[in-house]
Model the fold of this input.
Amino acid sequence: MSSNSPQLAKSMRATTEGFLYAWNGDWTSETRRTSLSYRAPQCQHIMRPATVATPPRSNEEWGEYFTHIEGRIFDGKMVILDYFADLSSRRAVAHSTLTATAKGVGDWSNEYMWLLDFDETGEKITTIKEMLDSAATQNIRAALKAADAK
Done:
C-alpha cells in the first residue's frame, strides 16, 4: 500500500481508535483479546517514562501482565484528544485521557501519549510506545496493592 494512500490513512486511524477504545468499559479477558487483536505478532509494548519501571513486553508478556488487572477496573472511558499520522513512516501519535473505577480503590484517571508504528496495511500495530502520567500510574499501582493487602 502506498505511503500516500487514503486507505492507509483510514486503516491507521481505525486501528488507533480500535486499540485505544478497547479500554472503554470493564477490563475483562475480552478487553485483553481486543487489545491484542490490533497488534502484529512481533509487536513490542513499551511503557514510559522509565520511572514506571516497566520493561518492554511482547504480546505474550503484555497479555500475562494484563491478567493481573482484569476484573479490577470498571467503567473505563478513553477519550482521544488529538491524533496525528505520518503516512510515510507509518506512525501515529495520539493524546488521550482515561477515567475509570478501580475495585477497592475508587475513581482514578490518567493521561497518555501513544506513539504507534504500523505494518504496511495500517491494520496492525508493530510497536507501542505508551507515555503515561507516572505519578498517576504509581498512585493507582500502590492503591491496588493496598487493596490486595486488605
